[in-house]
């Protein structure tokens, strides 16, 4: 059915619950898993000539985001190993999270994206999250939207 599943995460509790469900789904199918975290690009100060003294440099920002992403991906990595799943993880930088999720799925040959109905923003029970909605509109492969019933 599906042989390589992309699991996007933003590090939120809702996202972690969805990734856990995605790993269980992948285990049932004996599918490989690719986990992805998308960080925003570094935002240059509005006035480039006047860099705030306490603001991070681009390199400091990238290092901090890389460390944060690795922290968010660690439980996914451990759970995939415990489940005996082939696992890859990707950390991307892009201001369009949805486009990067779709691009990563294509780049890594995924045949399914398994993602939550909501992530960090949470929002309501009746509307899909904005990133999920954009992925659905951009994607040419199947997207399984997992809804957490009680949080």
Overall pLDDT confidence: 88
The CATH architecture name reads: 3-Layer(aba) Sandwich
Radius of gyration: 16 Å
CATH class reads: Alpha Beta
Largest pleated sheet: 5 strands, parallel
Low-confidence parts: 121-127
Helix/strand-derived category reads: alpha/beta
Tally of domains: 1
Shape: globular
For the termini, the CA-CA separation is 30 Å
| Total helical elements | 4
Return the string of H and E elements.
EHEHEHEHE
Strand order of the largest sheet: 3-2-1-4-5
Approximately how much beta-strand content do the residues carry?
15-25%
Helix content: 40-55%
Oligomeric grouping of the chains: single chain
Number of strands: 5
In the CATH hierarchy, what is the superfamily?
A: HUPs
Query: Per CATH, what is the topology?
Result: Rossmann fold
Question: How does the SSE layout of this entry go?
Answer:
Blueprint (H helix, E strand, L loop, with lengths): L3 E5 L4 H17 L2 E8 L18 H25 L4 E7 L3 H11 L4 E5 L13 H9 L4 E4 L5
Parallel strand pairs: 1-2, 1-4, 2-3, 4-5
Descriptive report:
Pfam families: Usp. InterPro entries: Rossmann-like_a/b/a_fold, Universal_stress_UspA, UspA. Belongs to the universal stress protein A family. This is Universal stress protein. The structure is a single chain. The longest helix has 25 residues. With 151 residues, this protein is of the alpha/beta class. It is globular. About 5% of the residues have low confidence. It has one domain: HUPs (Rossmann fold, 3-Layer(aba) Sandwich), CATH 3.40.50.620. The protein contains four helices and five strands, in the order E-H-E-H-E-H-E-H-E. Strands 3-2-1-4-5 form a five-stranded parallel β-sheet, sandwiched between helices. The chain starts with a strand and ends in a 5-residue tail after the last strand.
